[in-house]
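Example record for the data management plan.
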Amino acid sequence: MKTLDEKSIIGITALLINAAKIDEQYSEHEKELIKQFIKSYIKDKNDDEILKKAEEIEKNSNQLLNFTNIIKKNTMEIKSDIIEHLWKVIISDNTIDQYESNLMRRICGLIYFPDKMSAEIKLRLLDAK
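Corresponding structural encoding:
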């Protein structure tokens, strides 16, 4: 089902970090959620190592496009999974600000993911909290 290479995982992880940092709070809880994403795709690698690489990439990049191009090429199933992980990170602090909402709309547009599906994922996660 889930297949992404390590380079793609690192790039998508950088996007998750960007989403976590957009509210200027990058918590340990958000890091754990991001590690769950890494573990869901890569079983035999050190998730801390991948997280560190992704943090470096995110710190040195001001372009979302680099990260979204990786996602755009994947199946709707993988896109949906990534959108779900992004929402998990964003709602982990129990608030969704305008920058986070804007980021999700931009990402969905860039990866050709329907806003309606994104909203359904968000609502499902909020209901599960």
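Summary line stored alongside the record: DSSP finds seven helices and no strands in the chain.
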